[in-house]
Amino acid sequence: MNVMPDSDSKETSATHGAYLKLRELILTGELPPGDKLKIEQLRKLLDTGASPVREALSLLTSDMLVERIDQRGFRAAPVGKANFEEILMLRCTLEETALRASIRNADAAWEDRVVLRHHHMNRAGLRKAPDFEDAHKAFHMALLDNAHLPMLERYCSQLYDLNIRYRYLAAGGPSYKKRDIAAEHQNILDAALNRDADAATAHLIDHYRSTGEYLSSQMDG
Amino acid sequence: MNVMPDSDSKETSATHGAYLKLRELILTGELPPGDKLKIEQLRKLLDTGASPVREALSLLTSDMLVERIDQRGFRAAPVGKANFEEILMLRCTLEETALRASIRNADAAWEDRVVLRHHHMNRAGLRKAPDFEDAHKAFHMALLDNAHLPMLERYCSQLYDLNIRYRYLAAGGPSYKKRDIAAEHQNILDAALNRDADAATAHLIDHYRSTGEYLSSQMDG
DNA sequence: TTCTCCAAAAATATCGATATTATTTGACTT
DNA sequence: AAGTCAAATAATATCGATATTTTTGGAGAA
Q1: Which pLDDT tens digit goes with each residue over B29-79?
Q2: Residue B211's domain is classified under what CATH number?
Q3: Fewer CB near the last or first residue (10 Å), C or N of chain A?
Q4: Do B13 and A150 touch (CB under 8 A)?
Q5: Distances from the Cα of A3 to the Cαs of A7, A8, A88, in angstroms?
């Protein structure tokens, strides 16, 4: 007999809800890197039982956002320059592979998908919508999803999230204003639509490297 | 008040124990691909509570050995030709990256490590020891571990396990006898010790492709 | 027969309580 | 004053029971 107090329209399991919220808290840095994640504390914060919290944390382990130390609980994954650079390197390698495969399979439906995502991203960017991050990710993932390689896409998605975590941590650096992000995206899109895999991957990797180098220069140790 | 009945010398959490056993059962095919993994059934099989089972299954999700369908339980990850070929492709890409980085950092300690692993693997192979699989994996991982790229190593380790799962499923095919595995390993080792990254990666990828093509030819759908 | 719908059964997800293990605190020794 | 050990505290891991949801099985209608 659940009262279901009008709002809270979400229909989902407690575990999944906890997973989404914890993920958000870690990505945005509200739960800082290295922090001990105490069950009781999170249980109260998310207003749920210990089991869903525990299971959500176990799931976040797969995303490398949480570390599990047997018998000693969970902690938010630590960060560091070496880790950041490994993420950057892996993204370049894996996204190049995925993008080339995607272009190899190029068809009209995929072109439509990518063009739409690009448009939505620009729209969100212009009005500085809070969901620009989501639209940005959706565009990048759309570029890759025609590879039909689910594991590779999962890796890329994971690495994307790990990367934006660093962006949140270095919050609001000027790097975004200086560069012309829109032009970079346009270059990638155009090359992809031309089915020019070499140009597309070159632009994509440049895009990552130039944001990467800035963030990397901000970090020590 | 735990009786601790003399044997069972393992000192570990129930969750971790369940994780290891379930992993083994899935890798060897005793829990076949696509099978529904019922909590109660596993609880009895592993002689533990529902919470450790549940948590172990959540952890196995990260290894892509278990799929979680919200509100509908867990199942052993399905298999298929496309999945196998994706694993093979990713291994070639990622292990090449890791091996090149490893060789770039080559030093005497690493050489020692690799030579030893190679020796142990051959020893285990000669007397057909049941732990040949472990030694084989240890050799391959030792080749990569000088890259000092923990995420990349984790991916490679994951993919290695996913691959041997297919070997178990195609159990005892003649492919192993036909080819001279030992020579292939020797070639990889020699090239690595010579710090010849091009040759080492070429041998490594050949090694994977030739076992891969055999297994792939065995599968349909 | 085939379809729909509802009750029964089974399985999952979640809770609350307890046992187990790690960490801290502080008295006591050197 | 510094170190050590044991009790007290806190946190994790686990269990058993319950609530929720999905699946099954079959009765009745088209």
Answers
A1: 999 999 999 999 999 999 999 999 999 999 999 999 999 999 999 999 999
A2: 1.20.120.530
A3: N
A4: no
A5: 11, 11, 47
